[in-house]
Amino acid sequence: MLDRIELRPNERVDHLINRGLKxxxxxxxxxxxxxxxxxxxxxxxxxxxxxxxxxxxxxVIPLLLSGRTKGKIIGVEIQEKLWDMANRSVMINDLHDQxxxxxADLKNMPSLFGDGSFxxxxxNPPYMPSGGDQNLNPYIAIARHEIxxxxxxxxxxxxxxxxxxxxxALVHRPSRLVDLLTLMRQYRIEPKRIRFVHPRHGxxxxxxxxxxxxxxxxxxxxxxxLIVYNxxxxxxxxxxxxxxxx
Length: 246
Prior knowledge:
Blueprint lengths: L10 E6 L4 E6 L7 H9 L7 E5 L5 H6 L6 E6 L2 H13 L6 E5 L5 H5 L4 E6 L14 H7 L6 H11 E11 L4 H10 L2 E10 L8 E8 L6 E2 L3 E2 L9 H7 L3
Parallel strand pairs: 3-4, 3-6, 4-5, 6-7, 8-10, 8-11
Antiparallel strand pairs: 1-2, 7-9, 8-9
Helix pairs in contact: 6-7
């Protein structure tokens, strides 16, 4: 399939860690990050059903989830360039029967698909509020800052898209955890699993993974911390296993 996919200027095709998948990346936009890889690994996706990934970027999360579920996966991206890259990555991997990437504003998804249309939802949203020191690159600015959507937009839309009993998994910064949990409960998404990600032992967490259930009961588990690097500056055994697809 690769020989039939046209690459744009400044684009390249990278291997998507060790899962045998390929992804189109570009110097003009951000590359996929560890955040997305960890969210895809953390997500307890169903074997069947309908899944949706908001703020999909270049489509890394749908690609990673494709090997863990037989369900249909929708990726939603508002930026045309990123949508185009994600769509062609799906074609390179011959996953067009399972994954569909649509160019749209996530706030319009309930109107497009209807309430309660999905069993599982993932999102790696912009972390920083709009304003302040924004990257001059518009692609990166929109991905990092709440320019096109806020955290409340993400949570409120997630509540509508997922059926009662369905699950939502997000990754964010620990500094926004109170905001995230407050909004989840406000929109009837009960937090169920939380895992903090630490660069090294003894260092503060710089990421947090949260999974909630729409209309779930009030009981939450704090999972063991995930440590990224060991004392030698190498990936820990758990991180190696994640990147190897174990």
